[in-house]
């Protein structure tokens, strides 16, 4: 099942700039959706990525139904799985989904397609150094003295990455910073990367969690470096269609209150096993231990491990905005978007800021600190 789904995603969605071509050509997608009057029940369709660990607050929102505490009585929510953030963005642009959980790159792209549909960023799902930014090498690669030595080994090697993703931005930043020139920089889906590592056709790849932990657990690759190695972070973001924001600010606030609950729930280590179980139940091909390791597991610094596996910023902190600006510049440089700076209203921090004030919290609201593997029980 997973193989078929990933193959479909890989065929259609590896480069963000090509994903939206059909949508842009269809002005019918620009029509507003009717969400009803404030205070009345609402039906929401939510795109989320259980296959991307940093967006797992969506997993908890679905598994624990936290939204029921806040949305008007009688409201309903339908969750739709997106194997990559670009799938969620495309559905939002088409009016098929109104809320989307995704990584930084597709989230930023979504806000630049206002001629198709107006999408805004309303919350942060986290900041980290090794949720998207993870270098893996083939299992029989040399044993390296340090992560930096592992990165230098990539000179003249075959390296694969899903281009247009957060991994692409990270890999290119590292190559530039460390003066690395691979023999080939291949645009491959996660499934093709997995097959290439299994067959020994790839020297290295850059992938996100939980796939990184799965490939390591299956003995198909070794983790050698991450964003922690070179000071490059990654992020997850929550996007909403502006017609929802405009018509139902009450629903926006309700959802973001539930989102805050989800982030606080995930960050509590006593909930780690239950979160891993929920993630397994909403995906295929992953074990509970792999899911646990992808968010809660501690990796050594020699493998690019970071003591903080994810920082739940919730609102748009200066660090969040710095990453957004840097990622926007990168997307413009690879011609995935036609602007090098987002419009001022693309990011809307006012809802999360108001909620934090009401609940007497400050950003980051919580952090997941890596736990020793022996804590998995």
Give an overview in words.
This protein is of the alpha/beta class and 377 residues long. It folds into two domains: 2-128 and 233-375, 3-Layer(aba) Sandwich (D-Maltodextrin-Binding Protein, domain 2), CATH 3.40.190; 134-230, Periplasmic binding protein-like II (D-Maltodextrin-Binding Protein, domain 2, 3-Layer(aba) Sandwich), CATH 3.40.190. It is 41% helix and 18% strand. A five-stranded mixed sheet has the order 2-1-3-10-4, with helices on both faces. Helix 8 links the parallel strand 6 (158-161) and strand 7 (184-187). The relative contact order is 0.18. Residues 1-29 have low confidence and may be disordered.
Give me some keywords for this one.
D-Maltodextrin-Binding Protein, domain 2; 2 domains; 5-stranded mixed β-sheet; disordered N terminus
**Main sheet record:** 5 strands, mixed
- DSSP strand (E) fraction? 15-25%
CATH architectural name of the largest domain: 3-Layer(aba) Sandwich
Based on helices, strands and strand pairing, what is the structural class?
alpha/beta
CATH domain fold name of the largest domain: D-Maltodextrin-Binding Protein, domain 2
How far is the N terminus from the C terminus? 28 Å
Low-pLDDT residue spans: 1-29
Quick one: overall form? globular
**Order of adjacent strands in the largest pleated sheet:** 2-1-3-10-4
CATH class division of the largest domain: Alpha Beta
Output the radius of gyration: 20 Å
Nearest-integer average pLDDT: 92
List the helices and strands and how they pair.
Layout: H1 2-13, H2 16-19, H3 21-24, E1 43-48, H4 57-64, E2 76-81, H5 85-93, E3 99-103, H6 104-110, E4 119-128, E5 134-138, H7 147-153, E6 158-161, H8 166-178, E7 184-187, H9 190-199, E8 204-207, H10 211-217, E9 221-226, H11 227-230, E10 234-241, H12 242-247, H13 249-267, H14 272-281, H15 288-295, E11 308-312, H16 318-333, H17 350-358, E12 366-369
Parallel strand pairs: 1-2, 1-3, 6-7, 6-8
Antiparallel strand pairs: 3-10, 4-10, 5-8, 5-9, 11-12
